[in-house]
Amino acid sequence: GLSTQPVWRKLWDDVMKTRPPNSENITCWRKKFLETFFSNVLHGVLDVSSDWRLNDDHFSPLLHSSPHVSQLTLCNMLQGAVELTAEHNQQVLENLAGSLRILKFQHLLSSDQSIRRSLVLLLHRLIHHGSVSQVSMYSWPVPDTVLLVLILSMSAGFWRSGNALAYHSSPCGLCRAEDKAQSQEQAQEQAVRRGQYSKREWGDSEHQKGSSSTPEEEDAEVNGCRADTHLNSELSGPRSPPLRHQVCEDMSSEVPCDDTSTQEGSSCCVSDQLSCHPVLRKMRRRMKSAAGKKRRCLRRSSGQYADPEDLYDFVFTVARENNSGLLNNNSTTEEETVENWTSPSPGSPCKRCKKRGGSAGIFSPKVPHRFRSVSTLELFSIPLTGETCRTLSNLLSSWVSLENLVLSYNGLGANIFCVLAGLRALAHHPDCRLRVVRVSDVFSHVPCMELVCCILSAFPQLHTLSVSFDLKNQLEGNRPEGNPGCSKVEIPESCLEQLEIRFPREPLHTAFLLPVLKASKSLQQLSLDSAALPSSQELGLLLEALKECNPNLKKLSFHDVNLAEHQKEVLLLLQDPILQEVTFSFCRLFESSTTEFLLEIINAVKRNSSLKSLKLPGNRLGNHRLVALADIFSEDSSSSLCQLDVSSNCIKPDGLLEFTKKLEGHIQQRGGHIQFTHLRLFQNWLDQDAETAQEALRRLRAVCSVVNDSWDSSQAFADYISVM
C-alpha cells in the first residue's frame, strides 16, 4: 500500500541528473523514468557503465525497460531503428510491439538503403503487427521524399512503397503464420465448392437422361455443362494471395513479364472446352483481353522502373506522366483542372489521378487494407510538395482506421484541396472513423471561412475542426481564391461539436459564419482567435446567431480579439444561462473601462449558477481588480465558478496576498463551503517579493489548487510601462 513515487523520483535525480520538463504535470514517475531511460540508452545519451547499479553483463537496459515504453521518438539518422531491429534486440522489439502506442519522428535526415530496410522492419512489426496507434513527425525542413512516403504508406497499412523485395526478401513469421491459416481456410472453402459443383453436375446428368432431346443436343449440353463446371472450379481455385502476403512478395513489380501462370494455367485447362458454348466463348475472349492488358501493364512497369530499389522513380515517374498528360491535353481548361482536384467521385480521391489508379501512382484506393494502420497521423513543420500531397490524398481516401489528422505548418497552399479530395473520398466509405481534423499554416491560401465551409461540406461527419493561419497570403493584391465554389457550397447537417478558427487578422463577418453555425446543431465549443470585428454590431449579431442556432454551446473562447468597445456584449455572455466556460484571452477588456464595468462583471458572474470556468489572461487586471474579483465568492453569491485564470495580468505579490485574505474571509462567512478549486497564475510579477509571494501561495493552496511558474518579470518591462 506504499507509494513508490518518491523512489522513482530519486532514481531520476541519481541516473538522469537533469531536471525533467513539466515536472509538475508528471503523474507517474515510474513510467516517466523507464520511458526516458529506454530512450536515452537507445540513442546513446545515457552511458550505463557510469552507474554501478546498471553496469552488469547480465542486465539488458533496453530489455528491462521496453515493456513500460508507451511512446518513443526516433531522431536524425534513425540509429534507433537500426538498433531495435538488430538480431540481439529481437525480444526488445517484441516487447515494444505490445507496449508502444505513440511513435514519433523528429529532425530526420536522409538515409541510405540499409537504414530504410531497418525502418521498414520496425514499422511492419510495431504498426502492422503491433499496437502503435499514433504516428507523429516533427521538424523536417527538407524532407527526404522517399523516406516520408515510406512512413506515410506503412502508417496507412500498406507495405508496398516501391518494391517490397528491395527491403525485405521474405515474409515475417507473423505473415507466414497468417498465410498458413488463410490457406487452410481457403482450401476448406474450395473443397466445399467442389462438392457442391459435383452434386450439381450429377443432378444435371440425371435430368438429361430423362429428357427427349436428340443425342447431338445431349452431347452439346453435357459438354457445355462440364466446361462451365470446370471453368467455375478453376476460377474459384487458388486465389491470389491477399495484400498482407503480396506485400512481402510484391504484387506486380517483381512478377516477370511472361510469368502469367495463374491466368494462363486456368485458360489453358479449359481452352478445349470453351468453344462448345457461345457464352463461354465470349467469356474466354474477355479473359484473354483482361490478361493481355495486365501483361502489357506489367511489361511497361517492368521496363519503366529498371532499378527495383529506386523508390523515387517508382513513386514519381507515374506522377510526372500524369502531369505531362494534363499539360498536353489542350482541351482541359483551368476551371476543369480545379474541378478535378476538388470534386472527385466517391470512389477515388481525384479525377486527375484516375489514369493510374492513384494520386501519386503508388496505391489504388480500391486495394483493401490487409494490414493494421494507425488511428492518428500528425505532421508538424514538414513541407509537403504537390506530389507528396497527392500521395497523402490517395492514402487518406481509403484510410478507414484514421480518427485524427493534424497537418501543421506544411506549406500546403493550393494543395490543401488535393488533401481535401482524399478526405471527400474517405467520407463515402461506410467504415470511416475520422472525427478530428486540424489544419494550421503560416499563410492562408483562401479566407478561413471559405476553407471551413469546404472541409465541412466534404466531411460533415467531423466532430472537431480546427483551422489556423498566422498571416494572409503574401500576394495580398493578387490573392488566389483556390476553389471558387467554396464560398457558395452548401453545407449539409454536420456532427461538428468543436470548431476552432484562427483568423490571420481577417474581418469576422457573421454572415459567412452563419451557414456553419446553422449546419452544426450539435456544436458545444467555439473558439475565435485573432479576428477583427468590422463593426460594433458584429459581435451582437454573432451572439444572436449562437443563441438561435447552437442551443447546446457550452464553451466560448475569444483570443486576441479587441473587445474594449464591446462591454455590453461581454456582459451578455457572462449572463448566458447555458455557457459553462467563457474565455477572454488578451482581449483588452479593461483598456478603457471604468470601475462600474468591473462591478457589473462581478455581479453577472455572481448571479450565473451555470458558469464553471472564467478565463481572463492578458487583460491587465492588476492588483486592485484581482482583489475585487474575490467578491465573486461572497456570502450572497450563487456562483458555481470552479476555475479562474488570471495569468499575464501584471499581478504583484502584495496584491495576491490581499486577494487571498479576502477570499479566506468569504469562505469563512460561507461556513467553509466553496466550489472554487483551480487558480492559474502564469506569467505574473510574483518574483518581485519572493517571501510575500510564497506566503500568499501557501495560504491559497489550502483553499484551491494553484498553478504558477517561476517567470522572470523583467522581460515584461514594456508591459509594465504601458500599465503605468
TrEMBL record:
Record SUPFAM superfamilies: RNI-like (SSF52047)
InterPro entries: Leu_rpt_41, LRR_dom_sf
Regions of compositional bias (Basic and acidic residues) in chain numbering: 198-209
Nucleotide-binding listed as a keyword: no
Gene3D superfamilies membership: Ribonuclease Inhibitor (3.80.10.10)
GO CC terms of this entry: cytoplasm; nucleus
Positions of the UniProt region annotated as Disordered: 185-222
Keywords for this protein: Leucine-rich repeat, Phosphoprotein, Repeat, Ubl conjugation pathway
Annotated signal peptide: none
Protein name: Leucine-rich repeat-containing protein 41
UniProt lineage: Eukaryota, Metazoa, Chordata, Craniata, Vertebrata
